[in-house]
Every structure is written in C-alpha cells, then in structure tokens.
Specification:
This protein is mainly alpha-helical. It has 22 helices and 8 strands. Among the domains are: 305 residues, no CATH class; 76 residues, no CATH class. A two-stranded antiparallel ribbon has the order 1-6. It has a two-stranded antiparallel ribbon with strand order 2-3. Helix 8 packs antiparallel against helix 10.
Length: 554
C-alpha cells in the first residue's frame, strides 16, 4: 500500500487486498466509464451495439495495459472525437466503420514508430500546449450541440417531433443530480459514482411520465422506450405469436464489427447506412472511393485524438507522480497501446477507443492508481457485455437522460483542454493568433471538402470532408509554424508588443520602425513632472544582475 508524496492510497503496482476490495474498486472504474462508453453507439444511432462497445472497451484496455507493461493506470473507452467520423463511415456499413477504425489505429502505430527513431522533441515543436489545449477543449465544445439536441428528445415519443419539454425536464434532473452528488462532501460513495446516480434519477422521473403516457395513450409523455427490454425476453414467431427467447434472454454474444462486416461482404450489401433526419438510410458496400472517403474521415481526427492522448497522460502523470510521456512506459508505448487497443476494440467491439478522462478523474478522486484495478475493470466489462438483460436495460435509457449526462461529460473534456491555458501567455500575439484560429475555426464549423466526383454538368457530385476539429488543428499547426518561421527569419530577440497590451501613453514617442525612441542622457536625468519625487534609494550590487536580467527578458 502506498502513501507517497502524491497522497496515493494504492500506487501503480499495488494490488488491493482482499480480492473483494479489488472488485469494489474495479466496479467504481466501470461505473465511471460506463455512461460515456454507451453514449457513443447511442448517439450515432446504433444502440443495439452497446454490448459490443462495452466489450471493445474491455478488450482495448487489456491490449493497452500489455503494451504499456502495466505501468499506466487508465481505461480505454469509446471516443467522442470520432462521432462525426463514425457517422460518415456508417454510409458504408459496418465494413466502413471497421476500415476507418483500422486507419485511425495505424496513425498511432506510425507515430509510435517515428518517435522510436526520432524521439519526442518534434512532438513538442509540432503541437505545443498552445495547440493541444484549445484542440482538446474544442472536442468538448464541438459536441455541445449534440448533447443539447439529445436533451430535448423523448425516446418513446415518435409523433411529436424532436422537441419534448418533459424530456428536457428529465435531462435537467439528471444534470442537477450529478452536480449534487459531485459537490456534496458528506458522503463518499456518491462522489465516486455521480453519473450512474444521475442516470438513475433521470430514468426514474422519465419512467413515471412514461407510465402515465402509455396508460393514458399520450404520446408526448412516452419518454422511455421499453421495447428493447421486452424483445430481450420474447420474440415474434412466424405466426405473430410471442415466444420466450430461452437462454439468449440471459446470455448472448455482442455483434462484433468484424462479424457484421463479413456478413455484409457475403450478402454484397451494407447492413446499416447513414442517418438522415433521424432515419437510417440504406448504406453502400465499401468500394475504392469509399475507402478514400473513410480514410479522410478518420486519419485527421486521429491526429486530434493524438493531442488528447498527450494531454491525458500528462494529467495522469501529475496525479501519480510519474512522467508517463518522457519516462516509463514512454509515449511510444502508450501510443502503440492506444492504437492497437483501438483496433482490437473495434474488431471485437464496435467503436474506436481512446484513453478516458473519466478514468483519470476516478484515479484522482479515489487515490487508487493500481493498474490491477484497471485490469479487473476491463475483465468486468467483457463479462457484462454477454449478460443480455443488463445490455437491454442500458438500451432503454432515453436520449434526454443521456443528454443530461453529456452536458457534464463534454464539459469535462473542454475543461481539461482549458486547464492547459494556465501556462500559456495569451498576451503574446503568437499564442493569441493560434488559439483564436483553432477555437473560431472549430466552433464555427470550418471544414475542408475535397471533391472527387463530378456530374455530367460539371457540378460536384461527391466530396471527401475533413471534419471541423481536424481542420482547426491543421490551421493551428500551420499558423504556429508560419509565425515561428517569421520570428526565426527576422532574428527577433525581443518579445513583440501584444495586441492585448495596455493603451499607449499619449506622450510616448516611437520611431518609424515601431521601436521606442531612446532617451538622451539629459532626458534620463530629468525627473518626471507628473510624479512626486521618491526618496533616494541605494542600489546594491546584488540587485544589478536582477535588473539586467529583467531588461534582457523585456
């Protein structure tokens, strides 16, 4: 048991004993990542793939732990950054999702190989904190619209459109409950599982309105759709009668992306398609042009998640008192674990994975950095994904309740990026332009659309789109590189005056080049008329180096 300078109860290699305590700590990690992991397949319109997403998270985490030699205590789960990429890939069925996730994972593998031969210094030069910070913040901010859209939806109401005031109430109940559990200081357990308690409170309120809605036949009050839970135990026969599902009502295997992709190849058509206005369209079996489109949908976003990867490991390293990037296991191994773990999590699951800030937060709150807790939690996820009633119950969670959860989850992602601003001097023009370019381009939705097919009249028929987050990151890197090159070429040694500096004094004099005119010795000797003369002070020899250093810095 550890009690080091970081105030950890369990250090990285400690094994909580007895075994029952280890199970409890592992279950806390599962609860911390569960809400976010099930949110991704629900948001993209594939709630039936929740078991596969949970299975993939467990498998991906174990692969990550193996690559990092069990030295980095963090859980991998479904990545929010790939939401738009997954939506684009769905137009080509499960095969599109599988191929896209492989592309994303290979980006990490390539970056790890580059770091192996070239070291990590180029990473700091390419993506310093002034680029990583706003990019990570942008991931959360760009998903705000999705969270608010879900917050006003009722899963059981298919008639009254997308806005439901009762759904908004249930979402707010979820959100406020999470706040109360997280901020109260009397009870420890609610602080460890605020998301699960919040989901439970929102679900209870939604169920009360839904019971009235189904009983009184009022569609507007049908917030929860319990059909997945009903279908888990019964199925419709050819005669239309209901029959018990038998063993599959309690145990069933998730629909792996690999198996579903093989089925599509055999049938010669996609099983799923892009969702337009809430309705899933018929997809197209992946072809050569589709591979290029999927690649451009995933590869640039993988670079964005690379920035998030670095931020997560720096944050985790500060919590456990170890340098996970420059030290052990090192950025090369964490990238390999994340990339290969993401591929494995998609092949034997559904969604590309990434290291979870929620998992890092759980380590910080519980002061339990035991990597064996993470490993046990991953095994739990694998086992739970085969339990049919639990997976069906998760599918009945209404969109508005998940919207209340995402209101906080997306905010946590944004805040983790904003925290990196504390060491960034936004009074310097260089930093100001880079941060402005990333935030405004990303929030404004600037994307790069590359046409690759034309109609007979010359109009563009198809385009490959690089998402707004990836575009913002690229713009930030280019902006930073241009300003850095200009500074080096100009040989500037002095810090340029900031656009955000205080107003110029009315009587200040400047030469044509923009630098302040030097005062003559006579002028220096004259006291300022606007200020009262101060008592003479003796400057010691010890003060002179400090003054010269300050002048050099200016």
């Amino acid at each position: 048991m550890a009690n080091n300078q970081n105030n950890l109860i369990y250090d990285v290699q400690d094994v909580p004993k007895p075994f029952g305590k280890l199970l409890v700590f592992a279950f806390q990690q599962v609860l911390a990542i569960m809400a976010a992991t099930i949110a991704v397949p629900t948001i993209i319109g594939l709630p039936t793939q929740i078991p596969a997403a949970i299975l993939g998270a467990g498998v991906g985490t174990i692969v990550y732990l193996l690559f990092t030699k069990f030295k980095s205590p963090v859980f991998l789960g479904s990545s929010f950054a790939f939401l738009s990429s997954l939506s684009a890939a769905m137009a080509f069925g499960y095969l599109g999702i599988l191929v896209g996730s492989i592309f994303a994972g290979l980006v990490y593998v390539v970056l790890a190989l580059i770091i192996h031969f070239a070291g990590t210094k180029w990473v700091s030069k390419l993506m310093p904190p002034v680029i990583i910070g706003p990019t990570v913040a942008l991931i959360g901010l760009s998903l705000a619209g999705s969270a608010m859209g879900d917050m006003v939806k009722a899963s059981g109401d298919a008639i009254n459109g997308s806005y439901n005031l009762i759904g908004l109430l249930c979402g707010l109940v979820t959100f406020i409950t999470i706040i109360l559990c997280s901020c109260q200081k009397k009870f420890k357990m609610p602080k460890l599982i605020p998301f699960i308690i919040g989901i439970g409170a929102g679900y209870v309120v939604a169920s009360l309105f839904s019971a009235i809605g189904y009983g009184a036949h009022v569609e507007y009050l049908k917030i929860v759709n319990w059909q997945p839970l009903v279908d888990n135990f019964v199925h419709t026969t050819d005669t239309g009668a209901k029959a018990f599902n038998g063993v599959t009502a309690f145990l069933n295997y998730p629909d792996f992306a690999l198996i579903e992709a093989i089925k599509e190849i055999v049938k010669g058509e996609a099983s799923i398609g892009a969702i337009v206005d809430g309705v899933m369209q018929q997809g197209t079996l992946l072809n050569g042009a589709g591979v290029a489109e999927v690649a451009l949908a995933f590869i640039p976003v993988a670079l964005v998640v690379f920035a998030e990867h670095i931020a997560d490991h720096k944050n985790l390293g500060s919590i456990i008192g170890r340098d996970l990037v420059e030290g052990e296991p090192g950025l090369k191994r964490t990238l390999l674990g994340d990339g290969v773990g993401s591929i494995a999590g998609t092949v034997l699951g559904m969604c590309p994975n990434t290291t979870y800030g929620e998992s890092v937060g759980c380590v910080a709150i519980t002061r339990n950095a035991s990597v064996w807790t993470i490993f046990t939690a991953a095994c739990m996820c694998i086992v739970l994904s085969f339990i049919s009633p639990l997976m069906a119950l998760l599918r009945t969670i209404p969109s508005c309740v998940m919207g209340g959860v995402c209101l906080t989850l997306y905010g946590f992602i944004a805040v983790s990026g904003l925290k990196m601003f504390k060491n960034i001097d936004l009074g310097e023009n260089k930093n100001l332009f880079v941060v402005s370019a990333i935030l405004i381009a990303g929030i404004g939705g600037l994307s790069i659309q590359i046409p690759y097919a034309l109609e007979g009249n010359g109009h563009v028929a198809k385009t490959i789109q690089i998402t707004s987050i990836a575009t913002a990151l690229i713009l930030g890197i280019v902006t930073y590189a241009i300003i850095t090159a200009i500074e080096k070429k100009g040989g500037e040694t002095e810090k340029p005056e900031s656009l955000m500096a205080a107003p110029v004094e009315a009587d200040a004099t400047y030469d044509v080049g923009g630098s302040q005119a030097e005062a003559t010795p006579a002028e220096e000797a004259q006291p300022e008329a606007t200020e009262a003369p101060e008592a003479p002070q003796t400057q010691t020899t010890e003060e002179l180096p400090e003054k010269e250093a300050a002048e050099d810095k200016d």
